[in-house]
């Protein structure tokens, strides 16, 4: 079992379905359990971004996730058919600001970039595609 | 996520168990706002994270908003006993620097003077 794919509507309540899918993949592939939380976090941040920014009035985007194991680690790809949006174009938060000045948003994508080895965005046809890869060694 | 409260002379300890994520962060934030402004008006709010397994940016946001609400209410705000996965998120986001984090609950309690900030 090297690759699995699933899809859900871009509704916040569906995050639990994708998280369970990720965990099932994890245990079936016998991966290091201490690293699953990193992927759960990346999944939540990216999925919730799509829910918040990918919806248009009356239209819920469709979101597909695939998980693929390879020599360089695990790649999680999240695709949606919402409006074109590159989360990697967001400026990184200023980590030096004080408690009072610190903006409350903008952290999610930053955390994903910090935790993953590689993150890339492509617009493929009418879809946004975000690929995240992290080595599972050590 | 399970949330339990313990009222001590130095303040209120909030014991978290499970996951703080997009699904429950806003409700958690509201609960803490009520604790801060409610009848008991604790002199300090100590978030015990020993059994908190997971926090996402939505959870960080709840901590940030609560830290500011604590300042406004004249209460001290601190967290303690972060698990490694939660600690990593705090370190990467810079939250370890802007919030007060103690290694364990005993240390946190020892640092809380009696009376309001």
How would you characterize the overall build of this protein?
The complex is a heterodimer of chains A (138) and B (117). With 138 residues, chain A is of the alpha+beta class. Chain A has a single domain, classed as Histidine kinase-like ATPase, C-terminal domain (Heat Shock Protein 90, 2-Layer Sandwich), CATH 3.30.565. Chain A has helices spanning 15-28, 36-53, 108-115; strands at 3-9, 62-70, 73-80, 118-124, 127-134. In chain A, strands 1-2-3-5-4 form a 5-stranded antiparallel β-sheet, covered by helices on one side. In chain A, strand 4 and strand 5 form a beta hairpin. In chain A, helix 1 packs antiparallel against helix 2 and helix 2 (36-53) packs antiparallel against helix 3. The longest helix of chain A is centred in the first third of the chain and has 18 residues, at 36-53. Chain B is α/β, with parallel strands linked by helices and 117 residues long. Chain B has a 5-stranded mixed β-sheet, with helices on both faces. In chain B, a hairpin with a 2-residue loop joins strand 1 (2-8) and strand 2 (11-20). In chain B, helix 1 runs parallel beside helix 2 (57-73). The radius of gyration of chain B is 13 Å and the shape is globular. The chains are: A alpha+beta (138), B alpha/beta (117). The interface between A and B is medium-sized, with 27 and 24 residues.
Strand order of the largest sheet of chain A: 1-2-3-5-4
User: Approximately how much beta-strand content do the residues of chain B carry?
Assistant: 25-35%
Oligomer: heterodimer
Largest sheet of chain B: 5 strands, mixed
Order of helices and strands of chain A: EHHEEHEE
Shape of chain A: globular
The major beta sheet of chain A can be summarized as: 5 strands, antiparallel
CATH structural fold name of chain B? Transcription Regulator spoIIAA
Q: What is the assigned CATH homologous superfamily of chain B?
A: STAS domain
The counted number of beta strands of chain A is 5
CA-atom Rg of chain A in angstroms: 15 Å
